[in-house]
Amino acid sequence: MHEQLVVALNTQIDKVYISRQLNSGNTEFSEHFKGMHEAPYKISGKGEIRFHAFVDLSSIELFVDGGKVAMTELVFPESGFESIQFLSNHESVSLKEGVIYRLKSVW
User: Fold this and answer.
1) DSSP state at residue 67
2) 40: domain CATH number?
3) Residue 1 lies inside a defined structural domain of this protein
4) Which end of the chain, N or C, is more open, meaning fewer C-beta atoms within 10 Å of its C-beta?
5) Over its length of 107 residues, how does the chain's per-residue pLDDT go in tens digits?
6) Is 23 inside any structural domain?
């Protein structure tokens, strides 16, 4: 099963979003769980953005440009995500830094 969680920047509407709309794992327990959450964010004049993400089996904590935007999402994938992609809808945006921290289980 190909599960995915989408983290993206939309420069047309100046928003960062995390989407569980596609196959992001178990979402059947609530019709309201599958969806997209967004936060306002206007990219700098240089067109650079920095993402830091803390990921474990059931959550992602996203920090954009040192905390100018912070977002948290719960997810329930079958076996964990194997890769993460950061997307932008504009070619002049460059990912200056993208760091993903995979957290270990406390159990």
Assistant:
1) G
2) 2.60.120.560
3) no
4) C
5) 578 888 888 888 999 999 888 777 888 888 888 888 999 999 887 888 888 999 888 888 999 999 999 999 988 888 777 766 666 666 777 777 888 888 877 76
6) yes
